Amino acid sequence: MNTATVTGESLPKARNTEPSSEDSPLYAQNVVLAGTSVVWGRARAVVYATGMRTEFGRIAHLTQTSARTPRRCQREIAHLSRIVAVLAAGLGIVPVLRRRGHGLPTWANLLFAIGIIVANVPEGLLRR
After folding, report:
1. How many whole angstroms from its chain centre is CA 22?
2. Does residue 74 sit in helix, strand or coil?
3. Angstrom distance (rounded) from CA 51 to CA 58
4. Which residues sit opposite 2 in a β-bridge?
5. Which has the closest alpha carbon to 39: 58, 11, 60?
6. Which of 10, 41, 44, 117 could lock onto 92 through a cystine, CB 3.0 to 4.6 A?
7. Residue spans of the chain under pLDDT 50
């Protein structure tokens, strides 16, 4: 059985019908887990759990309920992002206010401001 989707093991593991002394179904030789596939031979099994009661469901539950508290580095990057965004907006708005007196159309000033703002924000800074 290929159990890589559940256990992450790269090699298939043999399964049999002999009783197992393992406590965890992940390591029991007589249990076939949801999300696994038969690599060689034939298999027939009895379903004893479905949905969130399977190991696959337990893993899904763990990924959905983990607390996401931002780390110090993430908080500092968010703070830096806000500073850069405010500076970029300032660098875009100030020239627009100064250029209004030169008789340029409003749409040209706004387009110029957007270009300045976008050019001043580093590409990778706002990614998560």
Report:
1. 33
2. helix
3. 9
4. 37
5. 11
6. 117
7. none
